[in-house]
Amino acid sequence: MMNITFTARKFDASQNLQDFAAEEVNKLTRFYDGILSCDIVLIPTPDDDEPARAELTVKVKRDLLNASETGPAYEQAIRSAVDSLRKQLLKYKNKRFSKG
After folding, report:
1. 45, 53 contact by CB (below 8 A)
2. Minimal CA–CA distance to 31: which of 99, 84, 86?
3. Could you say which of 43, 46, 73, 77 is the most buried, measured as most Cβ atoms within 10 Å of its Cβ?
């Protein structure tokens, strides 16, 4: 079970949004079960088309993986960032375990 921290900058995130973010991030354990912790930061942006930004930082053994994505809503930005981290985790996993 990974430790998840949630931060909403310059706005109050609803409990539903926090739960959604935690559920999405927990899906990453399907691809790599060595995740130690994850920081979720949601930030409003001045962009009218994509006013929501999600920044995710995942801590794994000896490394940090980061993803930052924007979208028209926080849910979409979170999904995009989780997808980006999924790809990074698969690369990390292949690199780590191919060295032996």
Report:
1. yes
2. 86
3. 77
